[in-house]
Design goal:
YhfH family protein
Length: 44
């Protein structure tokens, strides 16, 4: 039985920020676990 990879990626849940719980809009090759807002606070 072959599994369609497109269907797999459609069912992957959206990533959630580990700090605040906000949904993260990911880009290809992104391994970040925090949203941009939380990352910016960390750099201050």
């Amino acid at each position: 039985m072959l599994y369609n990879p497109v269907e797999f990626f459609k069912t992957v849940p959206q990533k959630e920020c580990a700090e605040c719980g906000q949904m993260i809009e990911e880009q290809a090759e992104s391994y970040l676990m925090e949203c941009d807002h939380c990352l910016a606070k960390r750099e201050e």
